[in-house]
């Protein structure tokens, strides 16, 4: 198992200077991640989850600690990129209003060294996989929130990132759309052998999606619970959520949540 | 995509009312003033406003000037001069405005100076410009340039500065370089603000073109205007004023069309959001 790790994080710490003092945000976070697996990270709002993602995506730097990305032996070298792509929480702000759905997805691929033909193939595949075929020439602002979130997902998937980082992607969606997209994320993670980190404050959703579930504490974020899920894939929104294992994890996570107050 | 709507009457209501008032005042002046004068009555000692011609006298002259082509060289002069000044001001304004909006340090370094210099009325700089360029065409273009560069420059800097940081984050996260992010994200999303600046600069360039023509030389509508006034050809003077108004309206419409075309995504997204609002 150890040899398969794609990402290893050791003792990650982040603090921000604030009013002459240091505000500790991430405290000694360590975990690892394999290819084709989905890691859920739950934690209360404002506990530094987004900061963690941005550090993993190299958009911010850590104060101390180590992040190691292993280069995988790949079947086809141009199949996967080195990108650590974030699907941002604010989907309506992360989409370019002057580009169509197609253009937005293409934009993400344009920085990659892939040929135009392959590019179009990937865009089309990502668009049809996320059920956006009829909307590829639409502008993002012509779409509903759920649809926009799918574009964000399609955009990330088309790039075949090394790590897919989802920052509360379903926060403002209705339950039906959310369930559908959860299943999509699980399916795509397996289909494309992505390493996905799914950040949420929704405990049920975290258990449903994750192969491993990490719970963070309030600020400064520490790992409080680390569960290796025994729930089997494929998962089912009704059966899985009512299984005894699911309820057991749920109980464990909720009770550790209450301990804090 | 430009939609050519059926011509609407609404835009003509205001001009027509203005012309009617103008005609009434002109006719009153024409008939009442001589009558009062003939009675030996000079109201409040005010001169008889003989230049205040009714529109029915000006219009035939206006059409005559257009059809005979007498005014066209003047119109052409003003137009190209404004456009050259405007294009130069836009090019420099946008190229300088972008780095000013991108870099905090550049802003700190230059913006206070920009704010001070742009407050100087262009006319106050005219003597200096004449000393530099003499009184030929280049002086006038320089004058237009100096006066009309500020709206583009300041608007460009402001819109570049206020691009949503999320847009930039997304671009960097997908591996785009600084350069690619600038040209593919920052500039396109600043275009609505840049265009707002361009429209103001265009109007200013026409105004300054006419001012410069009134100051020196014998070309352009500004000269024509001054010349007619000096020769007491008030019908010519008013005709030139009308031509200037029409020129301003046409240029503004042209840039509005380009704006709507280039930024169709912007106006549509805005209309989309406003669809349910009362306004």
The number of helical elements of chain A comes to 9
What's the number of extended β-strand segments of chain B? 0
Q: Quickly give the structural class of chain A.
A: alpha/beta
Give the strand tally of chain A: 9
The Cα radius of gyration of chain A reads 18 Å
Average pLDDT taken over every residue of chain B: 89
Features:
heterodimer; A: about 260 residues; alpha/beta; about 35% helix; B: about 280 residues; mainly alpha; MetI-like fold; about 0% strand
Polypeptide structure, described:
The complex is a heterodimer of chains A (261) and B (279). Chain A starts with a strand and ends with a helix. Chain A is an alpha/beta fold and 261 residues long. The relative contact order of chain A is 0.18. Chain A contains nine helices and nine strands. In chain A, the strands form two sheets. Chain A has a six-stranded mixed β-sheet, with helices on both faces. A three-stranded antiparallel β-sheet of chain A has the order 2-1-4, covered by helices on one side. Chain A has helices at 49-56, 91-94, 101-110, 116-129, 145-158, 175-191, 203-209, 239-242, 244-259, and strands at residues 5-18, 21-34, 38-42, 64-69, 84-87, 163-167, 195-200, 212-216, 223-228. The longest helix of chain A is centred in the C-terminal third of the chain and has 17 residues, at 175-191. Chain B is an all-alpha fold and 279 residues long. Chain B has a domain at 74-217: MetI-like fold (Orthogonal Bundle), CATH 1.10.3720. Chain B is 80% helix and 0% strand. Chain B has eleven helices and no strands. Chain B has helices spanning 10-38, 55-68, 72-102, 104-117, 122-133, 137-161, 165-173, 178-215, 220-230, 234-262, 264-274. The longest helix of chain B has 38 residues, at 178-215. The two termini of chain B are 23 Å apart. Classes of the chains: A alpha/beta (261), B mainly alpha (279).
């Amino acid at each position: 198992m150890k040899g398969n790790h794609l990402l290893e994080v050791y003792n990650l710490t982040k603090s921000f200077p604030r009013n002459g003092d240091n505000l500790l945000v991430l405290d000694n976070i360590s975990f690892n991640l394999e290819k084709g697996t989905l890691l859920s990270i739950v934690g209360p709002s404002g506990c530094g989850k987004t900061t963690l993602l941005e550090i993993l995506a190299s958009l911010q730097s850590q104060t101390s600690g180590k992040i190691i990305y292993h280069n995988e032996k790949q079947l086809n070298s141009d199949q996967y990129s080195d990108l650590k792509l974030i699907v941002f929480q604010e989907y309506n702000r992360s989409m370019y209003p002057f580009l169509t759905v197609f253009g937005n997805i293409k934009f993400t691929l344009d920085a990659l060294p892939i040929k135009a033909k392959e590019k179009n193939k990937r865009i089309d595949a990502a668009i049809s996989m996320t059920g956006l075929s009829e909307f590829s020439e639409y502008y993002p602002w012509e779409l509903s929130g759920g649809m926009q979130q799918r574009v964000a997902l399609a955009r990330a998937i088309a790039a075949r990132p090394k790590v897919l980082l989802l920052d509360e992607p379903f926060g403002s969606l209705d339950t039906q759309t959310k369930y559908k997209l959860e299943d999509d994320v699980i399916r795509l993670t397996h289909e494309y052998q992505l390493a996905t980190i799914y950040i949420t404050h929704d405990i049920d959703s975290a258990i449903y999606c994750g192969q491993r579930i990490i719970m963070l504490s309030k600020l400064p974020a520490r790992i409080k619970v680390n569960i290796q899920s025994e729930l089997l894939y494929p998962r089912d929104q009704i059966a899985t959520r009512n299984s005894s294992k699911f309820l057991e994890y749920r109980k464990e996570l909720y009770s550790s949540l209450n301990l804090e107050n | 995509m430009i939609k050519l709507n059926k011509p609407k009457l609404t835009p003509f209501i205001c001009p027509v009312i203005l012309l009617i008032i103008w005609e009434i005042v002109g006719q009153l002046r024409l008939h009442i003033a001589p009558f009062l004068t003939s009675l030996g009555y000079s109201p409040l000692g005010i001169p008889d406003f003989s230049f205040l011609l009714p529109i029915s006298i000006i219009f035939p002259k206006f059409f005559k000037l257009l059809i005979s082509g007498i005014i066209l060289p003047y119109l052409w002069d003003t137009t190209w001069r404004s456009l050259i000044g405007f294009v130069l001001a836009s090019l420099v304004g946008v190229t300088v405005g972008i780095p000013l909006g991108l870099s905090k340090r550049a802003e700190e370094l230059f913006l206070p100076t920009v704010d001070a210099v742009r407050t100087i009325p262009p006319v106050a700089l005219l003597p200096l410009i004449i000393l530099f360029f003499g009184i030929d065409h280049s002086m006038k273009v320089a004058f237009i340039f100096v006066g009309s560069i500020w709206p583009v420059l300041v608007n460009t800097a402001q819109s570049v500065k206020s691009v949503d940081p999320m847009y930039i984050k997304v671009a960097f996260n997908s591996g785009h370089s600084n350069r690619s992010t600038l040209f593919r994200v920052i500039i396109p999303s600043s275009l609505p603000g840049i265009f707002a600046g361009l429209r103001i600069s265009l109007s200013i360039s026409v105004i300054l073109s006419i001012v410069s023509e009134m100051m020196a030389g014998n070309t352009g509508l500004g000269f024509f205007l001054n010349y007619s006034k000096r020769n007491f050809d008030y019908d010519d003077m008013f005709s030139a004023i009308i031509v200037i108004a029409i020129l301003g309206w046409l240029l503004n419409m042209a840039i509005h069309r380009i704006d709507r075309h280039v930024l169709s995504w912007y106006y549509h997204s805005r209309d989309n959001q406003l669809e349910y609002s009362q306004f």
